[in-house]
Each structure stands twice: as structure tokens, then as C-alpha cells.
Design goal:
The protein is about 35% helix and about 15% strand. It is of the alpha/beta class. The chain starts with 8 loop residues before the first helix and ends with a helix. Helix 2 packs across helix 15 and helix 13 packs across helix 14. The protein contains 21 helices and 18 strands. Strand 3, helix 3 and strand 4 form a beta-alpha-beta unit.
Length: about 525
Amino acid sequence: MSKRAELSTGEALVGLLEAYGVDTIFGIPGVHNIEMYRALPRSKIRHVLVRHEQGAGFMADGYARATGKPGVCFTITGPGVLNILTPMGQAWSDSSSMLVIATALDIRDSAQGRGRLHEMLDQRGAAATVTNFHMRAYTPKDVRDAIASAFAIFASQRPRPVYIEIPIDTLKEPAGEGWTARALPKLPLPDADQIAAAVAKLNAAKRPLILLGGGAMAAGTEAIAIAEKLKAPILTTVAGKGVVPADHRLCLGHRLGRAAGVQFLRQSDAILCVGSELAETDFWDTSVLLEKNLIRIDIDSASLARPHTAEIAILGDAHAALAAIAPGIKARSTRGLPLDDLQDGPPDAVREMLKTVLGVIRDSLPREAIIASDMTQIAYAANEEFDVLTPRTWIHPVGFGTLGFGLPAGIGAKFGASDTPVAILHGDYGIQYTLNELGTAVEHKLNVIVLLWNNELLGAIHDSMAHAGIQPNNVTLRNPDFQALAKAYGCNAEKPGSLKALANAIKAALKAEGPTLIEMTPRMIQG
């Protein structure tokens, strides 16, 4: 990085972020953080003005998942921080790299209860609950060290949010020297003896199985090489969709939410699990516990120890670990576990309807298209039924389960992967959490496709109530005119009356200038 004549810490901060490779920042300028914006006009960094801090956080998350780079946000003191905590919680749960830089009240008058604008008693403490690393900077040197720590963590640890807060008066201080990017550490390498033990266990197994989570996203080629030698089926978590192509002959996709999928795991005598917590939201069942035949690879030592019992627990980068395992695997000619469809009982009518719609969507989109989805019934079906064929192209709020995630996450993904088609799978209720970000997409002429499933119902909650013996209540709603709303923002809008019209609308939207909202309804299927 060439030496820059920065006048203030706020200006130097922008130059340092650029030196670390940041090309996009999502945020909203406010009276407390304008010093962060002083240097942006002369920087190469693109700033995206969002409509709400939740939008900034979800966009940063979508950007990170689509690119593998940290998504960066600027926000203000107090309400700005609180608004972005929900996206930070989502990124923390789903292992997504996010850097949130917020302002704090002046050091000389901080959290004293004097009624300062945006005052909180413990702003950093609130952010600490959903971060990998959190720091309050008191001096310009603290800011430099905090940014260096953030990018060192992003380079070498489990991806999760980092939070840095800078007092308003510190941003105005002279920056001083030393604002250069520092050398970054690498991801940890696996232990050779444990690799040898994993190879021996897999070679001796009669019914090996591979289970891939989001932490294996960069190791798909190596996973396939091992699977093809072992003739072993591959299962994925929701976060692991796309690590290997869904149309690979050994890939069974995400089936862990089915009783038959769990039974499939129990039938294996060697489960190679890579980059997954194996959490409740992977199985939708808190009682699932794997206590034998488990080989785990993860960069998070805590994940290796809970809640399942690993026979071999390998701390290290998934790509490096699988690359070390693959050469030692002996090729075999016969398969152990069958490549069944893992169906549980008779098909569900609603699931079959959604599967039909998802099939049309899949056939209408290019293979490499990115799908960002929300917590909605059609996305739950898609977690199992929608084929994902390329890494980093399935973006779903698994762990925290946040409504309103899909639209801004898809917008963030488009900013990060501008040449890749992006479609957003949303429900009629959840989209109303962050519908205002249509304005962001229109302003930047982003060619994203919003596929809105409108059944005028909280469908999953309705079904959960009925299943629990509760008379469904407060689950129906009067929706706005989504076509008129979209057009009010300047967004293209379509409401196809048949599946054929849906396919045509998607193909037209791929070529449109700016975003298109396509409103889908159950009546469309009979059209």
C-alpha cells in the first residue's frame, strides 16, 4: 500500500480497509459516523446506501457467502448497532464473515446516563453476544490493531462476525503512521497421524459415508475424489448444498431432516463429517446423537467436541485435510450403502406442489445461479428438493432462522458476484420485514429476480399448530398489492397465471434491466 496523507483516523480507516482488499461497504451515514465517510469519495471502495441497518447486515452476509470474503458494514451508535445485531446473529449462527464497524459515544462522556444521543450503557456488550471478536478502540493505534486482528481472524479461524467500535472523538484524531495491511496467518493444517488414522478407518469400512457442511465449501473436488474411490454416498447439510454438484451420481443432497436420513447415518460404519456442527437445525431434532464411527474435520475445536462423540477429531482446514486423505484411499469396486431416495412414507400434498414449482424455477435458471432464500415454506422444501450445482450458490438463514433475510442477502450476493444470475426465494410475510431494500436494488439497477411465494398464510406455523393440536390462529394475513408496491419502487413486476408463464417470466427477468418481482401463488399451478 502506498503511503497516504490521511488527516484523521476516520480517513485512515478507509484506506486501511482498502489495503486489506475491501471493495464494498454496506451502511448508512449518520451524524455520529460521518468521519468514516470523509475519505470514501477518493477511495476505490464502493459504498452501498441501504434503507435500514438490517439490510446492511444481511447484504454483508450474502456478499460474504457468495464470495468467501468478509462483508463489511458501517453503522452508527445505539439504534444502528441494535438494528444490525439480528444480521450479526444470523452470520454468527451460519459461520459467515462479517465486519461491523460502529461508532460509540465520545470517550470523555460515554455511557454515563446523561441523555446523550444514541446512548447505551454497554453497546459493546450487546454486540459481544454474536461475535467472534469484539473491541472498543480508544486510540488510533487501537483502530489499526483491531482491523489487523479482524482480518487475521477471517484468514485463519471459523468465519463469524467481528465488531469494532470507535468513539466519535477518536475518529477525528490525527491518524499517525503505520496504516498498512499486515501479513495474515493461514488456516490450521491437520495432524498427519490423525489423517493416517482417518484413512485407515475409511479403508476398513464396509459402509462409508461422507457428510459435508458449509465449512467444506472449498473442498468439493477432494470430497468427490474420496467418495468415488470409496463408492460412498454424499449427504450435505443445508449450508453444505453445492459443495458437490447435486447431479453427481453419489450425491444424495440434504436429507438429514428425515428419519430415514438419520437412519442412513446410523447404518454407516465410517462417517466422514467435514465442516459441520451437526446441530439441531441440521436435523430438526435435538435427540440425534452420533456416538460411534464418526470422523470429524473442522477448524473450530469446540465443534469437534460437541455434542457428538468423534472417534477421530481433526482440527484443520477442510481442503487441506481432504487433500491429505484422498491419496491414501484405496479404490473399491462395490458400494456399501445404497443410493436410495430416502423417502419417508407417502408424499405430502403441499410438499409435492412446492416441488413442482421449484422444478420449474430450477429448469429456468442457469446452472451457476445464486439462490438466496428466506425462512418460508417454499424454501424449507427447496432445502431438500432444489438441486444446487455450484459452490456458494445456496444462501439460506439456517441457524438463527431470521425472517427478512432473503431479499437483502440476495442483493449483497449480487454486489459480490455481479456477473452471476441471482434469484431470491421469499415468502409473502417475511419479505415485508425488508421490502424497503427493493429501493437499493432499483437504485443500483441490480438484475436480481425476487420469486415471491404468496399464499396469504404463515404456512409452516399453521402446520406446526395443527400438528401440535392447536387450532391454527393468527396465521392468515391481508397482504398488500405486491405488484403495485414493486412498481412504486421502480421494480419490474409479474404475476404469472401458470407454470409455463412462470418459466417465461423468469427467462425474461434474467435479461431485464434492474430487479424483477415475480409473484407466485398456489392458483398458478392450476393455471
